[in-house]
Amino acid sequence: MGKIASHYILLHLLAMAVVIVLLCVGVKYGLDLYTHHGEGIDVPELKGMTYLKARLLLDEEGLNIVVSDSGYVKTLPADCILAQTPGKGTKVKSGHTIYVTVNSPSSPTFAIPDIVDNSSYREAEAKLMAMGFKLTPPQQVVGEKDWVYGIICRGRRVSNGDRIPIDYPLTLMIGKGNYDESEGMEFVDPTYSPDMVDQQPTEVDDFEEVTIPPVGSE
After folding, report:
1. Angle value at C-alpha 155, between 154 and 158, nearest 5 degrees
2. How many CB atoms lie within 10 A of CB 39?
3. pTM, whole model, 2 decimals?
4. Mind listing the pLDDT tens digit for each residue in 172-189?
């Protein structure tokens, strides 16, 4: 007990406690300095700005900018910022990256799905509208009712797989359920002559019976 309670052991324990306290305090304040705790930069409003102007503004604030996606709004100029993440007013640290969506100079194009001569009007309409296409009233053609026989875009007939700008309206050519009388079949009533009516079926000749001699006989 005397050795355990000696001044030498107590001094060591006290030194260890002081070191632990200093380490905890150093880690706390060191992390605050490293992460800039308590500091923050308000993210400015970038929507509606050109990409170049937004980049210059963020450079002055000590922030970075990265284009993450593109969209298309016909009424806005090309290279205009449509959306940003994080949004306006968000507190961020210096050096943080702001992700933006910019306006494309031309409308995006999409391939026409496999709907021509392969789907009904309702199916084709649902697929095209889900892709973002705008449809005009359908054009009725000769064929099976509500069956898609073609697609017209700006006066030109397009096929499956053709890439069309999303802002070009499409017109579906669907069957109206009946056929053109000019393409129908002409039925002719049969005619009979008096000779054909009185004509009797010909008699079949009787077969002649043939006897085959037994094997070995002359």
Report:
1. 80
2. 11
3. 0.48
4. 999 988 755 555 545 455
